[in-house]
Amino acid sequence: HRLMQQVKACGFILFRGRTDPHKSFLLMKHRDRYDLPKGHVESGESDLECALREMTEETGIPADAVEIEPDFQYRAIYYPQSARLNNAIVEKTLIIFLGWVDSHTSITTTEHLGYEWFDWHPPHHIQDRTIDPLLAEVSTYFGN
């Protein structure tokens, strides 16, 4: 049997309100679900370069407007069907960085129907497979 193709996607969970007790985080809206600004790594790109490029492409936020949390990185491996590969099952590694933006940061969507800032009050129940495990790990990292 052939080895399963491996793909990697990197992205960001963005927060605002770092010094404020009322933090919020950004999710992008699709028709039937939420997502993070993320995408596939291009050749020669580091994980962080990919995450920053995708974030800028999908939100309009420039890389230099984000303060990256150096000690946080979420990694997950799952096995979705890939539309790009005739719906073959692939091994997908997802790497998410955490960044802080100014509360007045404006968002320009390009690939999503819209976006939403969610108030931070864990535990969150938004999407069990992708978003919730990430938010649980962020909660542990923040110590709340």
What is the fold's blueprint, element by element?
Elements: E1 6-16, E2 24-29, E3 34-35, E4 38-40, H1 47-59, E5 67-78, E6 81-82, E7 88-89, E8 91-101, E9 114-119, H2 131-142
Parallel strand pairs: 1-8
Antiparallel strand pairs: 1-2, 1-4, 2-3, 2-9, 5-8, 6-7
What's the main sheet like?
A: 7 strands, mixed
Mean pLDDT, rounded to whole units?
A: 92
The run of helices and strands is: EEEEHEEEEEH
Binned strand content: 35-45%
The unreliable regions are none
Class based on secondary structure composition and strand pairing: alpha+beta
Total of helices: 2
Distance between the termini: 46 Å
Please characterize this protein's 3D structure.
- The chain is α+β, with helices and mostly antiparallel strands and about 140 residues long.
- The protein is built from two helices and nine strands.
- The strands form two sheets. Strands 1, 2, 3, 4, 5, 8 and 9 form a seven-stranded mixed sheet that branches.
- β6 and β7 form a beta hairpin.
- The longest helix is centred in the middle third of the chain and has 13 residues.
- About 25% of the residues are buried.
Task: Supply the key terms.
single chain; 144 residues; alpha+beta; two-stranded antiparallel sheet; 17% helix
Précis, in short:
The protein has 144 residues and is an alpha+beta fold. Helices cover 17% and strands 38% of the residues.
